[in-house]
Design a protein that fits this description.
The protein is an alpha/beta fold. Helices cover 23% and strands 29% of the residues.
Length: 265
């Protein structure tokens, strides 16, 4: 696979929904598979799209459970494989990633590090396999990174969890696709510096001049049509909702189970 392909494994916000695990995305190019975030329920669905031991690297935006808890299950799968423990693979994440994963299953940090080579993220750009990845801090109560991923001229931005954030606009500038969280509806009860509303996600996309906006981190009890409608008023480009199984990439029409129609603002 020469071109970059993105498969939405999980797009539910804060906890899994009936149709989707929590946050998880599979990025593929040139035979390399990178998993970005690994939330509740993601490991099971991931196996529909990639071989269990076919993951080359993992990148975590932050250490809230809905973005990383299934890494504990993946450690079990790699530690107790039928043919013996699997080789260590790199896990890029905030400071304390190994300790966080160790806490999920009561394993010691040394045991986690035997299967996962934890690499501490910092703002800046690095190469992970064929991908050029730029990370920056976004606006969330714990250390959280948004990402810009580039491959062969195609540019993806991922908000992770964030409130309003100039850093997200910079990461998404002129991106072909922005996967942006839309956890809240507009209203007086919205908590600042935590998550974006659908309208705020659309405003960030417009400011950044992105080519396409896909809303994600969708809290299961929210009405999807209202989410889409609130975003459509502030973004004039192609706009749609993430679903588990949605496939995106250069030249790939959005596809996947239950893919909603694209709306334009």
């Amino acid at each position: 696979m020469a071109s970059m392909q993105v498969t939405v494994i999980g797009c539910a916000g804060s906890f899994p929904g009936p149709d989707s695990p929590a946050s998880c995305y599979l990025l593929e190019a040139e035979g390399f598979r990178l998993v970005m975030d690994f939330g509740n329920g993601a490991l099971g669905v991931l196996q529909r799209f990639a071989e269990l031991y076919g993951i080359d690297a993992i990148c975590l935006s932050h250490l809230h459970a809905d973005h990383c808890v299934d890494l504990g299950s993946y450690w079990v799968a790699r530690q107790y494989a039928p043919d013996g423990p699997q080789p260590s693979i790199p896990v890029y994440g905030p400071r304390g990633t190994a300790e966080r994963v160790a806490g999920f299953g009561g394993e010691g940090t040394d045991a986690i590090l035997a299967r996962f080579s934890c690499c501490e993220l910092a703002p800046g750009t690095r190469e992970i396999g064929p991908f050029r990845i730029t990370a920056d801090h976004v606006n969330h109560p714990v250390e959280t990174f948004g990402f810009r991923v580039e491959h062969d001229g195609w540019r993806l931005a991922y908000s992770a969890d964030t409130g309003e954030s100039d850093a997200l606009v910079r990461l998404a500038e002129d991106a072909d696709l922005l996967l942006c969280e839309a956890s809240f509806f507009d209203g007086p009860e919205i908590q600042p510096d935590l998550h974006l509303t659908a309208r705020q996600a659309a405003v960030h996309a417009s400011r950044a001049g992105v080519g396409r906006l896909v809303l994600t981190h969708l809290v299961p009890w929210n009405d999807r049509q209202r989410t889409l409608a609130e975003a459509a008023g502030s973004y004039r480009g192609p706009l749609s909702m993430a679903t588990s199984g949605l496939v995106l990439g250069p030249g790939i029409p959005p596809s996947g189970p239950g893919t909603p129609p694209v709306a334009a603002g």
